[in-house]
Amino acid sequence: MTSSEERAGDHRYCTGNIWCVALLGGWTALISVPLIFESRTLTLLTMLAVVAGALTMIGSGLLRHRPAQPLPWYLLSLSAVLFALGTALRDFTGDAVSPLDDICTLAGYSGIGVAATLWLRPRRVRGNYDLLLDSALIGLGALLASWTFLISPILQSRATTLTTMAVAAYPILDALLLTLVAHSVATTTRSETSLRLLHLAMVAVLVGDLGYSLETAGTATIGHEVLLTPLLIAYATVGIAALHPTMASLGAPRQIHPHHSRQRASSIAVALIVASLVPVVGSSLGTVDRVVVSSLFALLLIGVLVRSERAIQRSARSERRAQYQADHDMLTGLLNRSALLRVIDRDSPHWRDQPRCLLFIDLDGFKMVNDSYGHAVGDELIANAASRIRRVVRRDDAVARYGGDEFVVLASLSKQDAAVLAERLLGAFVRPFDLSAGEVPITASVGIACDSPRDTEATVYDLIRAADSAMYHAKEYSLGYAFHDDLRHPHLPAGRPVAASETRSRNWRSNAESTAV
């Protein structure tokens, strides 16, 4: 970036900071007016000004950022108007219009719920059922706490009327809203600033509703201006969220990877359960309270048990996956060197009292393939060679990639059967490999080392070292395969004669060398 561009960038940064500070300062001053001046008219005007400002900011954000899913923002705007209308009717008029204020408020809840659902639906989450279960546990815990502290006292202190039922429905809607917020928080990435601000706004709505419910239940006496403050904060936060550029991506399909929020969700659910059960322990409950509390607690207990079982299964799967990655070569899927050295101890019943033969396989001319065509083709050749070896050996035989172009087969075989297996392995390399670079002929050399059941001191490493020596002997004399026992005799080297495919391989290497030159 040039110096002029840097100055321009710094200027934009400073301007953005100044704008944010001015915006937050203005909102703070406006929201503080009802707390400073105890005037119902001034409080009503302040609420209307805050709602108008929030709607203006939402409209500005929609015009500036043009989100792919604008419908949720329209629903939030409508919900803001309905909440303001319900609050105005409830707090600034008489009781004659009380059913209308409940209708407006309940309609506002519906708009928020639909908007949250539209934002959450396109999110594809791995392990989605676990996250849904966590969110449901939080919702059930909140519902149990709401019944204990809010709903039951409201129903006991009032006559059963339509208004009472509507007031008692607010804590239930808050529990559902908390469930949606919990699930949204669990699937939110760090870059989604606008969605995080919306979470803050929803929490402010929940705090305000909690205050209203506590006052209705007679549990606490809270001032009217104090109860209105969380709602005003929610309006302002929604407006700021609409101005942030990340608002345009809300509702777009996104792959989410769950993180530690699962643990936080479970902790919150347990805390809600404990907090709601403490007041009812040892108290005399009515029939309705007993039925509701028992039912909710049973659902929570079932949910916690299911969640724990799924966590155990997921942990077991992760442990098996980690163990597989630790024991296997990622290119070929065969055992790696460290797993091969432990294979006899790990599966000792299979190898006990059985003759063992280890075949050490090395690809002839692999370096020339790697140098001529590149490492990608070399890896392709290694993977294809491993596949051919796996098709030849038996299911119980241990097959490993020892390193580079070297493979090892450990099997319970006699010496005669090991020779037959070596012939079959060499035969698997007769046909050229069909790679992305074309047909590549390649041969192999095999070294074999065997021990007997009576030789209890021999380890896999001893067999590998002996078979490796036999393999180099077979490669040096073009034998195809050789036994380590034959190296102890001074006569001519024993093994399989050179195959026609090996002659083709040497010719191909000569051509490759001349081409490289």
From TrEMBL:
Residues 494-517 are annotated as: Disordered. InterPro entries: DGC-Regulatory_Protein (IPR052163), GGDEF_dom (IPR000160), Nucleotide_cyclase (IPR029787), Rev_trsase/Diguanyl_cyclase (IPR043128). Its EC number is 2.7.7.65. Residues 508-517 have a biased composition (Polar residues). GO terms for molecular function: diguanylate cyclase activity. Keywords: Membrane, Nucleotidyltransferase, Transferase, Transmembrane, Transmembrane helix. The keyword Nucleotidyltransferase applies. The chain crosses the membrane at residues 16-37, 43-64, 71-88, 100-120, 132-155, 167-185, 197-214, 226-244, 265-285, 291-308. Coiled coil: none annotated. Residues 354-486 form the GGDEF domain. This is Diguanylate cyclase domain-containing protein.
